[in-house]
Specification:
Keywords: Metal-binding, Oxidoreductase, Zinc. Its cofactor is Zn(2+). Pfam families: ADH_N, ADH_zinc_N. By secondary structure, the chain is an alpha/beta fold. The chain has two domains: 178 residues, Medium-chain alcohol dehydrogenases, catalytic domain (Quinone Oxidoreductase, Chain A, domain 1, Alpha-Beta Complex), CATH 3.90.180.10; 136 residues, 3-Layer(aba) Sandwich (Rossmann fold). It contains twelve helices and 20 strands. α9 links the parallel β17 and β18. The chain starts with 8 loop residues before the first strand and ends in an 8-residue tail after the last strand.
């Protein structure tokens, strides 16, 4: 099924080089039988996008030619391929930004986030969704409820990180959790662990605004890292025991070291945040005494349906994370806002088509 007068081109915001965006029009590829054509309605800016914008690179990825950023998105289907049966024109969807090969060992075992051939939006070589329309495989779009806004639906991507981390650590009720870092992913991890039955949640950050938001989302104790020692505060809150689970979501080198030390014996930690540097010192004596279980985390797999369900049950809370709104033509302003306004801004949303909300 298709709507009339389908677009063949798409106005897009390209990162030309570090610090510079340029509007261009791209020609849409021909749809395959299993594809859908999506009108992109809302795109959230991620910290990795900002890193590419600011430095022109992220880890081993370098922007060597113009690249469309953005990978947190939702939209409306305009057309479906001949083999698509689960969607129709007019459906509202969230878009999962990684398309794996589907054939390698990792894909076959269900760990498709680790697929070496995955094509992930906004990584050099694969354009993202700061564009009006995209042609995309139908296997990686998901229905969203009619009463869910496009902005909240776009949170399905960063929220999936917290859901995946909670599943990886096998979070169970009755434990205390420490979340290091109150950026959008850290804040959404609060929502994730609550959905898995956790009620005692300690959160740290350097920004009072973000710590206040953490409390609004359900944190039971907050730590201002500019005034308090993280390990001492966690031990104090847990009667000297430490927490059962820790999530390091800041990427700060010192925080990465400290977060491990907040665990009780046989506690579990997931490293979520993109590191500022590749290596952090670890206390080996602590590790050989407390037997912590340490997990690295790379994106997510098989999380979108659950993430959408949890967000739908917590739309009022999720809405507290969305603070700023820009048009596609204002992409550079939106990125500058994200980069420089950590004391008052959380999730910045860009609208590639009509603007739904004001600043």
């Amino acid at each position: 099924m298709m709507m009339d007068n389908l677009p063949t081109t798409s106005k897009s915001s390209y990162l030309e080089k570090a610090g510079e965006f340029k509007m261009k029009t791209k020609t849409l590829p021909k749809m395959k039988p299993t594809d859908v054509l999506v009108k992109v309605m809302a795109v959230g800016i991620c910290g990795s996008d900002v890193h590419f914008y600011e430095h022109g690179k992220l880890g081993n990825w370098n922007v060597t030619e113009p690249l469309i950023l953005g990978h947190e998105s939702s939209g409306q289907i305009l057309a479906v391929g001949s083999d698509v049966t689960d969607f129709k024109a007019g459906d509202r969807v969230a878009i999962e930004p990684g398309v794996p090969c589907g054939h390698c060992e990792y894909c076959r075992k269900g760990y498709y986030n680790l697929c070496p051939q995955v094509q992930f939006m906004a990584i050099p070589g694969t354009d993202g969704d700061l564009t009006q329309y995209i042609v995309y495989p139908s296997d990686y779009v998901y229905h969203i409820p009619d009463d869910m806004s496009y902005e909240i639906a776009a949170l399905s991507e960063p929220f999936s990180v917290g859901v995946h981390a909670s599943q990886l650590l096998d979070v169970s009720p009755g434990e205390t959790v420490f979340i290091s870092g109150s950026g959008p992913v850290g804040l959404m991890t609060i929502m994730a662990v609550k959905a898995f039955g956790i009620h005692d949640i300690i959160v740290s950050d350097a920004e009072p605004f973000r710590l206040e938001t953490a409390k609004a989302l359900g944190a039971t104790h907050t730590i201002d890292v500019t005034k308090q020692d993280v390990v001492e505060e966690v031990k104090k809150y847990t009667n000297g025991e430490g927490v059962g689970y820790a999530f390091e979501a800041s990427g700060n080198n010192k925080a990465e070291t400290q977060a491990l030390m907040t665990l009780r014996r046989r506690g579990k930690i997931a490293y979520i945040g993109m590191p500022a540097v590749d290596e952090a010192p670890l206390n080996i004596s602590f590790m050989t005494t407390y037997e912590p279980q340490i997990y690295g985390l790379f994106r997510y797999a098989n999380t979108y349906p659950l993430a959408i369900d949890i967000l739908h049950d917590n739309m009022d809370l999720a809405g507290k994370l969305i603070t700023d709104f820009y048009t596609l033509e204002e992409t550079q302003d939106a990125f500058e806002r994200t980069r420089t306004a950590k004391s008052e801004s959380l999730k910045v949303v860009i609208y590639p088509n009509e603007k739904l909300r004001d600043k």
